[in-house]
Write a structure and sequence with these properties.
The chain is about 25% helix and about 25% strand. The protein is of the alpha/beta class and about 350 residues long. The chain is globular.
């Protein structure tokens, strides 16, 4: 019986590579999945850059689908051979944060983000899933692996950005950055019934895709004053702003572009080179401006995954338009380097095993 697998791992700050590791074992209530396809996330790039402290040899990745290889005692919903997807966040479903409705913070701050942060990730030939009945979702027979992959992180994250923004039907929203998460937030804003979707993006290919996904206006921050342009378009500011980049400048601009009663929804991954976020006090009403800031991590669990699958099945949008490059697992180093350096207008690279 095969005991070793190949995995793409963190080998020190700025260093990555393919290594051999033992195939994981399914414990109580857990499952082991044989990977068939993965995506690489910009968060993996941030992690390798040193934003998240990791031991050398920790496997990267949190966007994978595959086939059930083994199940532990207590798993009742799945059998060996089932095609499944798992969200990037894998809550336990039992702890106090989970019970209170904040499953992304399972066991503590960002606690549901277990892949890579707390244990080996899933950019590997096999990967472990805790609390399998809660976290695994059966992939519909007519759905491709590539389609299902988008439910594992970017759609769920982008959509919670739109959900937490509390966009009123017919309301206005500004979405800062149109990477995969920002594009997903644009899709989510359209699904939520926004009447004016303003995307902020400088890259022409991403701007074009944002329009395909529902953006009414795209502002180029390199050539336009974003805040002034939003005020021109809305009159008194937007109902909501979504921060999908993770930068001080875009976070500050979110505060500036919303009207009193507006909401800033932050789903960007902050921390590259700074440890605090500053709030522009004048536009925040010196702390009394009736402006709300909400934050969220990718939302996981079987039921949410099933709902995301339903949207794809009913053709509300095509997430695979974000797939710009395709690689075999033998080329994963090349795919990661392209993501790290943003080469060839890459948005999302698909890895097949």
């Amino acid at each position: 019986m095969r005991r070793l697998m190949k995995a793409f791992a963190f080998l020190g700050v700025g260093k990555v590579g393919v290594i051999e590791k033992a195939i994981p074992v399914a414990g109580l209530n857990d499952a082991v999945i044989r990977t068939t396809a993965s995506l690489i996330c910009t968060s993996d790039v941030h992690t390798v850059a040193g934003t998240l402290p990791l031991p050398e040899g920790r496997v990267l990745g949190h966007e994978s689908v595959g086939v059930v290889h083994a199940i532990g005692e207590g798993v009742t919903r799945f059998r060996v051979g089932d095609r499944v997807a798992v969200n990037a966040a894998t809550p336990c479903g039992h702890c106090n944060p989970c019970q209170r409705g904040f499953a992304a913070q399972c066991g503590g701050m960002l606690g549901a983000y277990k892949f890579t942060a707390q244990k080996d990730g899933n950019l590997a030939e096999y990967f472990h899933v805790n609390d399998a009945d809660y976290n695994l979702a059966a992939i519909p027979a007519a759905m491709t692996d590539e389609q299902a992959l988008y439910a594992t992180d970017v759609l769920s994250t982008g959509f919670v950005g739109a959900e937490y923004a509390d966009i009123p039907i017919g309301g206005s929203v500004v979405i800062f950055a149109q990477g995969p998460v920002g594009l997903s937030a644009t899709i989510g804003a359209k699904l939520r019934g926004a009447g004016l979707i303003i995307a902020v993006e400088s890259k022409p290919d991403r701007a074009a895709l944002a329009r395909t996904y529902g953006a009414d206006v795209v502002i180029n921050p390199r050539t336009e004053d974003v805040v002034a342009r939003v005020m021109e378009l809305t009159g008194d500011g937007a109902d909501a702003a979504i921060e999908a980049l993770g930068s001080q400048e875009t976070f500050s601009n979110c505060i500036k572009v919303i009207k009193p009663g507006g909401v800033v929804s932050n789903i960007g991954y902050h921390g590259d080179g700074y440890s605090t976020l500053e709030i522009p006090l004048a536009e925040f009403g010196l702390g009394m401006g009736d402006k709300t800031i909400r934050t969220a991590l990718c939302q996981g669990g079987r039921e949410r995954m099933d709902r995301l699958f339903r949207l794809i099945q009913t053709k509300r949008f095509d997430p695979t338009l974000m797939t710009t490059h395709r690689f075999s697992f033998d080329q994963v180093d090349q795919a990661f380097e392209m993501m790290r350096n943003k080469q060839d207008n890459i948005i999302k690279p698909l890895i097949t095993f």
